[in-house]
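TL;DR need structure tokens for one chain.
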Amino acid sequence: MSLKQISVIDLSQIDSQHDARIADEIRFACHEYGFFYVINHGVEKVLLDDYWLLLKRFFELPGEIKESINKIHSPHFRGWESLGSELTNNQVDHREQLDIGPEREALTNPYPHYERLIGPNQWPTALPGFQECVLTFMAKMSTVARRILSLMSMSLGLDSDQIHHSFGEIPGPYLKLIRYPSTPSGSQGVGIHKDSGYLTLLLQDNIGGLEAQACDGKWYGIRPREGAFVVNVGELLQMITHHYFIAAPHRVVNAKPVERFSSAFFYSPDLHARLDPLPLGQGLIEQARRSAWHQNDGFMPSRQQILMGTQKQGTENLPRVFGHRYWQRWERSYPEIVRKYYPQDYTADS
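>> reply
TL;DR here they are.
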């Protein structure tokens, strides 16, 4: 299979007449590709227009204003980062971004260790209306994500709330606002990776540059589509579906002489949620077991594995609680923040 034609799911057609067909399309897309589009998703155009405008205005702010909310100031990995601040597979990404998570108070004595991720965001006060618009957008995207998870559950022959039921009491949406300058030769906008959670919804402009790897080993462009979100499976959703759903490796290279903008929304469970396998039918489990593409497709390595020489998706034993795995994601990508706030956990490059 290739990614030349991936499914387009019309959420306005969710009713008893179309549910079975749409569930089949989603099951096929998640099993074969790990990517699909959704259209007519219910996020109002006026909100999307306002959000795009403010996103671009944020990146136009003077450097000293953005620097005041640099992610290095946040023990919760929130805030702005300049070009070259994030690592993927221990290689520098050529993008600028702002990370926003659930707005919560930091805990005095966080335990277990992954509760360090709970805390407030850093907001650009110089941009009126920005915080309100972003939080409204995140709430709308959470609603869309829940609808998609419901369809995914049904596509696997489960109750519609089966996957979301495993999310626990406080799901953890997370948002990245991203600017990609032209990618220098030999560099990466963002390197080859898999998303670490359950579900990603991507809003991208018309520049292009997102590519995903298919089971034939080739890379295919996930082209921009007007009014659509790109949806892709995260590695933990792959894990709990017995590898029936696939989290496809993907990357971004902006080969054009203009900036590329995108917004990635990640929908993940409560930090304390257990990563228990879903009760799939034996037929689906066996189908995944017979596929080398699915069974041999490992997960993103931890920082410790990378420093030990792992240069691609690993085959580690994954933690059984979401927070443990989520912490590995931040530790892998931002070792300098770990060294500043959690030196006891820092692993040096040598």
